[in-house]
Each structure stands twice: as structure tokens, then as C-alpha cells.
Design a protein that fits this description.
heterotrimer, A alpha/beta (374), B mainly alpha (357), C mainly alpha (293), A: 374 residues, alpha/beta, Rossmann fold, 2 domains, seven-stranded mixed β-sheet, three-stranded parallel β-sheet, 12 helices, 15 strands, 20% strand, C: 293 residues, mainly alpha, ABC transporter involved in vitamin B12 uptake, BtuC, two-stranded antiparallel sheet, 2 strands
Amino acid sequence: MTKKILTCTILVLAMASCAFGAAFKIGGTGPLTGGAAIYGTAAMRGAQIAVDEINAMNTGITFELRYEDDTHDAEKAVNAYNALKDWGMQVSLGSVTSKPCEATAAENFADRIFALTPSASSAAVTDGKDNVFQMCFVDPNQGSASAQYIADKKFAKKVAVIWKNDDVYSKGIRDTFVEKAPSLGLEVVSETTFADGNDNDFSVQLTDAQKNGAELVFLPMYYQPASLILAQAQAMGYAPKWFGVDGMDGILTMEGFDKSLAEGVMLLTPFNADAKDEKTVKFVAEYQKRFNEVPNQFAADGYDCVYAYCQALTQAKATPDMSAEDLCGKMIEQFTTMTFNGVTGENVKWAKNGEVTKDPKGMVIKDGAYVGLD
Amino acid sequence: MTMRRLINLKRVEARRIYLTYFIVIIAYVICQTMSSTRILSSTMRGMLVPICAYMVMSISLNLVVGISGELSLGHAGFMSVGAFSGVAAAILMQSVIPFAPVRLALAMIIAAIFAAIAGFLIGIPVLRLKGDYLAIVTLAFGEIIKSILNNFYMGMDSGGIQFSMLSDTTRLLPGGKLIIRGPMGISGIQKIATFPAGFILVMISLMIVFNLVNSRSGRAFMAIRDDRIAAESIGLDITKYKMMAFVLSAAMAGAAGALFAMNYSTIVANKFDFNTSILILVFVVLGGQGNMLGGIIAAAALTILPEKLRQFSDYRMLLYAVILIVTMLGTNNQDIRNFFAKLNPFRHKEPEEEEAA
Amino acid sequence: MIFLNYFISGISLGSIYAIIALGYTMVYGIAKMLNFAHGDVIMVGAYVCFYAVARYNFNPFLGVLLAMIVCTFLGIIVERLAYKPLRQAPSLAVLITAIGVSYFLQNSALLLWSSNPKVFPSIIGRGAFKLFDGELSVSHITALTIIACLVIMVVLTLFISKTRLGKAMRACSEDKGAAQLMGINVNATISLTFAIGSGLAAIAGALLCSAYPTLMPTTGALPGIKAFTAAVFGGIGSIPGAFLGGLMLGVIEIFAKAYISSQLSDAVVFAVLIIVLLVKPAGLLGRLTQEKV
């Protein structure tokens, strides 16, 4: 499998450089090894598919993509970023995960290399940097949007929150959710945490939610611990409503996962691999063909990032011989004015501070597939 | 003072110490020149400060493991204490001391003090234990420090500095700023760590350790390491000397942590976990226990190695593991060593080796 | 009743720690080395079991058996290639080599089986026994884990105290030189210890992933460290100690989460460990070896 990808990449790179002459050098860092490897690998693969499609389309824009491993660590991310800089990166995909991206974003800002991160969602990534943009929702917005959604749809009055205590993403969403909930008439009756190293057993967290009478449990976390929570809740006979965030996407594609466990789970996610629109169908089919698995939200974000770049570079009439700094200015101009349609949302716009605006889609899992909530 | 002491030393040891200083200075001059003339790649330039920090960590742990003879598996914890206290101090001083090098130096000193206090507090229970039990307790303390910092909040407003644990209940006044934010760590750090500062820290650490080793205390350390009971029987206060080594080592680790943290715009407690402690231990073991020069070379080599393996993409970390295993086998197995020794046509008996063995 | 539920969760988690800790403690007792790669052998065992059961539709118990065979061989190979050449080397060198092996296994798993988490099929279904009108529920896997842990502990104790091979193992752990003089094949005995420890790791892997059904290349790493803590807690080198240490660690972890703070539970667990070691410097059931002058 890996060999195939490698050969594939090499072939594509060779093609890109021979057939089309110069290409834009686009680089990103992400965890390709270690515990968070799934996110980095997905984003890299999504971006690679987009690059190959665009290069084959003959639009005048061609890309050369390179991803470097940062093992989900800020120090390694800066090393990886520097390696990309030595390679001659012109526009950057930032980093895949939040903390490493905070570190590389500071470098992007100092070096004047434009960055569009697929999935680093903490507010500190873009804070105070005019040339760092996000493709995904910023965490605080997800927290308040989730609270709003739960209150609007009157899903529950009493809610429990289980969050990951050593994770920026989880903490960011939890903070605004808990802050916003009381003003919307939601009562947070139970709040419990877990961390790396004690993320196996959730009996205490679930018992606490149950005994405090939570009707809905909010899970601001990635899908891997969420799958454990759902399984353990079922084993103890606790069946509240479940509400997740975009990190929950992917739960249905875990090999061996009993989809009935996720029946009725609601989540706000910008991407839905089962959507029937042309773009999504095409992307999902290609991803499945190449990697033999269903793409998750990270892959979709990576894919959209490259297409957003393609659109911005075309509109700016940029050419690959421009310096990173020149491109940076042009990209800032484009991204703050353009509207983008991708697989993770229609009418996507960016604010001056780099935050994205797109509509989160409320989804519910029915019969092992996503169905729109509205 | 240093000079006279060194003159009194055995020639072999003095030579080794001068060689260490010499190599470090030469390496610095070369790197600094290459860096300022831009011959050095961005990758290498970006690694200069972390390499210095890891070198100091290696020296620091070598004091405990190599010279004092105790195994510590939680050294990243001290680095963490230093990183957080140092960076917080630097942020607090930002408006008072605008000159970055002074701020950096002060921050490193404050970091060293905080880490030394942590080292002292931890040392009281830890040093009553021995061997692997001591190792596991240091591991435990490393994890406890990580866990506490993941739940620690600190902010500053016009009313002064506010702390809270578990959740942010500091209730800062308008205009206040939350500096340490639990699991989100510290963001927006000004990158004031520089390579010259790192070099100076490495030199200071080396001087401290060499002076200590060749002092009365240092000889006491080694006497305790080599035979605890004999040392005790001649009236050496074992706990005192062990504590001294431990606290000093923690202080150096704290300064290194501050240097390291101020090279990045963000820092989280999870960075300084068990794996980082182990990484530092690998420097020490690979470089040879008690061998400062070996330790700092290993620190530099093992920091650069994963970057040089990037061309192997997916197989990078696998290769790293293989290189680590093969190196350990190659340097520690007598048969393999003899085999390589036979290959070397210019081999001659090294008096230093004999003495060390 | 909630208290009892927590207690059972704790025992269940603790039983898994205990089985892993047994592997640590046996190897330590005989080879005097901390085998940090043990946690990753668990992961390999779990993956073998996963592929046997989920992909090739083996009977779950056959899957566990296959995993045990693979892990036993893996244990022996690792010992031969990486640890045996270092028998005379300082213990720290062996420790670092073990860490190298751990990285190697994790990264091989990443390349072989990808980073995507797999959901482990439970070896005996997801049902539960309901007691006291459903107030107390004990899942089948919890019951199986506790029984498996007890059986392993009893069999292992009998093996060590009654059989010739067991005696050889004890002799090696007391004094390798003297054992060799008595005609015991020390190298073979150490290999045997690794084989048994790794076989147990496969069982632990299957149980860990049945109780907490998610499997990634890093699955073994953190439970490995916890189990190592458990082994020291009980007195490293002591088999009943590993058992007791594992159970206590599990219970303390769950209680700390429930009654103190879920955020600080790890800190509490390690603080208890430190206190225990200060009162009993060789762990709960460990022996303090008298130093010879």
C-alpha cells in the first residue's frame, strides 16, 4: 500500500515536472507516524488527490505537493516546515493538528509564506497573523454552534459533557459550549474528562452523567474515544442522546465498528462522505479506489484546501515563478474576497483574521449512514 | 580557580575536559558562521537552539545518571517546570525589560530556580529509594508534573497574578491576560531564544559539571556511585551529596526547558512526557554514562538524525529504531566491538579506555 | 451500588494491568531488565487476533491461540536478536535497546496495518450479567477478564513452584552463575521466560481490546507503562505482587476518577504509588535484597 502511494507520488511528481513545466510548490506538515497519524495521513491523501486532479485538468495551474511528518509535535513541525522551506515551498498547507500548527503558523507569519491549514482549528492558529487561514471551523465556534443547535431543536435540557483534558481541540470546544449553555436554557449537569493514558475506561464518566440525569451527552472529541464511549454506554444500559462535533466524523468507517452503536448519534460536521452531490461522490470514489477506505473530514479538508488554492491562484493570475512573498500578498487579497464551493461546504468565505465561515450541517446517523437533521 | 584545579588533575582527565570545551567552541564558531552566511539550510538553522537545549539536558541527566549513578526517568518534568515558569516570567517581564537577551537570561535563571525547587521537593522522597524503584518514582513525578500543568491556569491583570487549578476561575479583570491555559499551554510566545544564548548555556553547564566533578563533592559523588556502603563507612553524607547532584541537575534542566520553549511560539505540558525523558536518557547512554562530550554529541546526532531520514518518508521512524538498536548492540556487545577493532589496522590500546574499564 | 459498579470496573481494568504486569515482572525477575517493548507485543497480539477473527473468520479462541503462537515466536526472536547480545552489557544499554524495539514494533505496525483505528470484535459478545434487579451489571468480558487473570496467576505460580523448568527459572533469578554451575541452561531459561511473557501478552492484548475495543499501533504503549507501574507497585519480580499491584492500580484509578477528580486521576494514581514505595521501598510484596558488603 505505502509503496503504491510512494510510486504514485513519484510518478505524479515526474509527470508534473516534465509535462507542464514549472509548478507551484505546495507543502504541509502533519502527523504521518505516531498516535495521531490517521489525521495527517488523511489530509495528505486528500490533498494529493486534489493535486493530481488539478494537474490533469489543464487549467494552467499545476501543483507539486510535499507533506512532511511532524508526529503531532510543535518542535518536529517546525523542523518539517523548515525542510519544506529548503525545498522551496511557495504556498503552505500549515499543519494538520492545532498545536503544531500554532508553531508553524508563527514561522509562516515571520517568513511571509501564506498558509491555509486544512484542519488546525484552535483560535490561536490564526490569532494575530494576517497570512494564516483555516479551512475548518474554529473550535470556539463549534462549541457555541453546538449549544445553539441543541437548544434550538430542544433536544434536551440537562446535558453532560465528556472532554479530553490534554487536548487543545476538545478543550476549545468545551469552553465555549459550557460558557454558552446556561444562557440558552441548557443545564450542564455533569462534566468529566479523560486524557492520554486513561482513555480506555469511561465507566466513571458515563455513570456520573447517568446519575445526574443527563438527557444528552455532548462529546467534543475525535471518533476513536467516542466509539469506546458508545460501546461502554450500551454495555451499561445507558441510552441518552449523543451529540458530537466534526471530529466524530469517521466513526462509521472504522473497520469492525458495530454501526448500530452509533444509531441516533447527532453531529455537526461540514463534510459528509455519503452526500450525493457530484463533487463529494467523485472525491469519495477516487479516495476509495486509491486507498481502499472512506475519506474522513480531514481528507476532505485537505482536498478542499488545494482546490481553494487553485481558485485563488487562477483569479490572482499568479505564476509559479513568483516568490513566496509575492504570492502571500496576492493570496491574502484573494482569500479575504473570494467565495469557494467545495466538498466541505458551499459559499465558503474567509474573514480578515483567517477564520472561515461556512454552515455546519447537522447530521444524524440512521441505519448506519448520515442523514441531514433539518 | 578553574585553572589551578585543572592543573592539579590527572593529565588524561584534563585533556578530556579541554577537548570538550574546544570541540564545543569550534562547533559553535562553525555553525554560527555558516548560519550567518546562510550556507546552513533552514532545517539546520531551525534546529540549532533545540540542539543546545537537548545538550544541556544531556549534561544535566548525565550528572544524575553517569556521575551520581541514579536512574531518572522523569527528567522532562524538570524541563517542563522550567519551560512554563521561564516563559511565564518572560511574558510578565515583557513590558518592564524590553531588551530581549536580558529578558531571556532572567527567564532562564527564574526557570532554573523553579526547577531546582521542584528538584529539591521531589528529591526528599526520591533519594531514599534505590535503583529501579527510584527510576519508577521519578517517572511517577514526571507524570504528576505533566498532569498538574495540564490543569494549571495563571493569568495577570491590574490586581496582580492570579492562579487556579482544574478550571479557569481566575476571573481576570478587563485588560487582564490569561498566560498559562491548562491543556492549551502557553500560546503566542515571543521567540527570543537564540543560538548564542544556547551556546552560552551549554558552556555554563559544562563548567558547572566539570568543576563539580573535580571538586571534593564530585569525588564524593563518584565514591557513592561506585560503592555506597564504603562511602558511607568513611562518613560521607550520602543524602546530602545525592540531593546536591539532583537539585543542580534539575536547575540545569529548567534553564534548558526555558531556552527550548522560547524557541517556539507555543508550548504544552504534553510535550514533556515520558517519551521525552526517555529520549534524553538515550543521549546519555549512547554518549557513554559520565562522558559529557559523548552525551552532547549524541544529543546533536539524535536530533539531526530523524530530519536527515526524511527522504525515506514512511520508513523514517522505522529506520530510526533500527539505527538505535544497531548502535546499542554495536557499542555494547563485546563480540561486535572486537570484530570492528580487528578491522581497524591502526588500532592501538587506548589508555583512557583501560582506565575507564 | 454505584460504588460496587465502580469497584467492578476497577477490578476489570486492574485484571488487564495485572496480566500485562505479569509479563514485565517475569522478565525482570530473571533477565533483570525492564522490557519496555512488552506493551507493543500486546499490540501485535491484538492485531493478529483482530485479523484472524474479523478478516478470516476464525473462532475467537482459535484467534487468541494464533496470537499467542505469533507473540511467543516474536518474543523469542526479539530476545535472541536484540537482548541476548547484551547479556553482559550495563542494564541501561539493554533498557535503551528495549525502547528501540518498542519504536520498531510500533512503526512496523503503522506500515503494516495503517494508522486507522480498528474496532476489535469482542471474543465473547457484549452482553452483561445483571445482578440485584439490574442495579449492578457485570459485562461478560469483565467476568472473563477476571477469571482469565486468576487462572493465569494460579497456573503460573504452580508452574514456577512445581515444575523443573519453573525451578530453573527461580534458580536463574536468584543467581545466574550458580544456576549455570548446577547445570541449568541459563540462555534457554531466559528465552523460555520471554516466550511465556510474550504469550501472556497476546492474551492481555485480546482481553484489553475486547474490553476497550479499539486498536491502533500505539494501543499497547500506555497500558504498558501503567502495567510497569503496577509491577513495581506490587514488588517487581514477584508474581503475586504483579497480580495485586495490577488490581490495586485499576481500582485506585477508577476511584480517583470517580471520587477525587477525573482531571487529576493520573496524578493521584502516581502519588499513591510514590507513597507506597516510601513506606515499602520494594513494593507491596517485593523482597528487599540485603546488600553484601
